[in-house]
Design brief:
The chain is mostly helical. It contains 18 helices and two strands. The protein has a two-stranded antiparallel ribbon. Helix 3 runs parallel beside helix 6, helix 5 runs parallel beside helix 7 and helix 7 packs across helix 18.
Length: about 350
């Protein structure tokens, strides 16, 4: 047989020197893919609640970049290198998707300060932070300024007046609304806030959800946004940016944990679909709880982590003082992640189990 020359093989097949390890995604590629996955939900935000969300996205990202650059400068780290990984963009994006389209501009300023400076760089920077930065910023402004955070625009389908882009700018920067238009007619509580307030006033859930603010199985508009979060999350799983374990655990635990309460008293406990399709639970399941830095590494740990986020969120929604408990659920599980990983470390291959 004629000997096969190595040059013939190399000319036929593209080979590289050992070790033959497949290329991994860079941080920049991962962050850009997350951006891509969130585009449908962002467009749905604009469709249902107007262009205010575009202004909030811009403000959050600009403030995030500002605080990132200042922190890197003070720490003598290369600014261009760290800004080019786009992680700070995603932090600003996730924060903006959690706040009202007409929240005052300083909400983003304060939120990004705590997210970037306190939660990220005081812990050592990218990859060393214990808590999810976006959720730290959101929790700070939610606790500190509950009134400003509770003001949401009514969905444009039921709103008597749709704010233009310029009018949104005036509302955000000057706290001015169009003359002749009542402030209360443009703004409403979120669906979860309406549910909590109505239940305290001894209305049944069926009476509360009969309002125009609610759709078929979630808040009007919110259910579509949650659907797009779900589709974007499935895209991330398909691209192997995230694993299926955390979001699956969040969704299934939400159903399993909330259903018994709802079956026991459907007039006073929110049903599983309302939990999933109102508020930020679907966003958290795919885009926040899956953060590899602040979550769990082991396979079992990821399942426990996702389940914990769902349970904590539901407990806050049902029994706490805040209408949505996603941020608190994420942060509490961030604290628990190191312990969960320690308890769920898989045994080394070939090690004998104790009898």
């Amino acid at each position: 047989m004629q000997a096969i020359q190595m040059s013939d093989i190399q000319s036929t097949y593209s080979t590289q020197s050992a070790p033959h390890i497949p290329n991994t995604n860079t941080v920049a590629k991962v962050m850009l893919t997350v951006w891509l996955a969130l585009i449908p939900a962002m467009l749905a935000h604009v469709y249902f609640f107007g262009t205010g969300i575009i202004i909030q996205l811009t403000l959050s990202i600009v403030f995030a970049l500002l605080f990132e650059a200042i922190s890197l400068k003070l720490l003598n780290k290369p600014i261009k290198l760290f800004l080019s990984d786009y992680s700070v963009f995603v932090t600003g994006l996730l924060f903006a998707l959690c706040i009202s389209p007409v929240a005052p501009w300083w909400i983003s300023f304060i939120g990004m300060f705590f997210a970037i400076v306190v939660a990220k760089h005081l812990f050592g920077g990218l990859g060393q932070n214990i808590f999810n930065p976006a959720m730290v910023g959101f929790a700070v402004v939610l606790i500190s300024f509950p009134q400003s955070m509770s003001i949401w625009l009514a969905p444009e389908a039921i709103s008597p007046y749709a704010l233009s882009f310029v009018e949104n700018l005036q509302a955000i920067f000057l706290n001015q609304f169009p003359s002749g238009i009542e402030f209360d007619t443009l703004t409403q509580a979120t669906p979860l806030d309406s549910l909590k307030t109505g239940i305290k006033q001894e209305f049944s859930i069926s009476e509360i959800t009969a309002q125009p603010l609610f759709g078929n199985f979630g808040g009007l508009g919110w259910e579509w946004i949650a659907n797009f979060y779900f589709l974007g999350g499935v895209f991330l799983v398909y691209k192997r940016i995230i694993t299926w374990r955390v979001p699956t655990a969040v969704i299934l635990t939400t159903i399993a944990f909330s259903l018994p309460f709802n079956l026991y008293d459907a007039d006073h406990f929110i049903g599983p679909l309302q939990h999933l399709f109102s508020g930020g639970l679907m966003l958290a399941a795919f885009f926040i709880a899956t953060d590899p830095t602040t979550g769990c590494s082991s396979h079992k740990g990821q399942i426990y982590f996702g389940a914990g986020v769902a349970i904590m969120t539901i407990l806050v929604r049902e029994f706490g003082n805040f209408p949505d408990g996603v941020a608190f659920g994420i942060l509490l599980m961030n604290m628990s992640a190191p312990l969960i990983d320690r308890l769920t470390i898989p045994k080394p291959f070939g090690k004998k189990t104790d009898v």
